[in-house]
Write a structure and sequence with these properties.
The chain has about 120 residues and is an alpha+beta fold. The protein has helices at about 5-20, 35-40, 55-60, 85-95, 105-115; strands at about 20-25, 45-50, 75, 80. The protein has 5 helices and 4 strands.
Amino acid sequence: TQSTWGKLFESSRKMAESAAVTIAYWGVQGRAEPLRQLAEYLHIPYVNKKYTDPQAWLADKATLNAPFPNLPYLLDGDKVVTETQAIALYLVYKANREDLLGKTPEDRVLSLIHI
């Protein structure tokens, strides 16, 4: 039999898997590729939304509730995050992996350079 903690962990893992974020960008690797790789590394499920038609992007852009609607963007429920570095930080915090940012202020600055 599975312990209470084991059941709780399994339940929260399944909820996290079912709640995939959306990472949206043009139909090329570009600025979104490091974000997709980071999501894979952190085991964050995601939907890879690719825009191939500028008109489709402009239509979606008008509906994004973000101060600076831009590509790439990340949707997580009702949250919208734009700008590559901000999205990377969001993914790190979502996964509770602040350790990836380093221990010192200098390390944290260097971690942003690599995004």
